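Board work, copied verbatim: Leucine-rich repeat-containing protein 3
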Amino acid sequence: QAFFCLLLCVPWGSSCPRSCQCTEWAGVKAVLCGSRHLEEIPTDIPKDAVFLKLDANSITKIPSNTFRHLSHLEELDLSRNAIEKIDRVAFKGVAAGLRTLDLSSSHIRSIPKEALLVLNAKLQLANNPWHCECDLQVLWEARLDPDSVQDITCHMAPREEYVGKPLLQVLDAGVNFCSVRQRTTDMAMFITMFGWFAMVIVYVICYVRHNQEHTSKHVEYLKSLPSTQGHAE
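↓ predict structure ↓
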């Protein structure tokens, strides 16, 4: 916080997004776009930015290659937004050098594992409505912020017993969401196949009964006809 206060004191003379404030201190450049009512991430962020704050806006998604030109970026703050969708290659171009990524207090339910696997940054993911599923299994290996890890809780999960619990606590107990989903899929397929099989059996039974009734009525009809011998007499 003190560092950013110093940055605010030194204006940045180069180009800067109109909705942001750009500052520089000791050769370190920061772009401050917090609380600017932004609905999208600006596309004209200077290439040599080291710090980028986009917190407290109304950003709903992080598209592909959004930060690809920001090779010097080390800290990225996207907290307190309305993010719901993160593309698989959203952090392409900055994943190697990024040291801190804040995605806390948003609307994120899931992050593609391809986007997480490339990140070496310390992640802040607390206070999001997480759907604990297979893609989040990779968080077991991610660098999570230890101060907020207990606030990464399961808002939805394959089993009711996991809902409301810290994600890492569930993973630490040996739960594998990928295998849980596979078992759920297998069970759904089994139920579907059983349903189709039951329909076929019912159809065969109805068909046989219908034929039996039709044959019985035909036999009774034939019996009711006068015999050829009677006509001859």
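The chain has five helices and ten strands.
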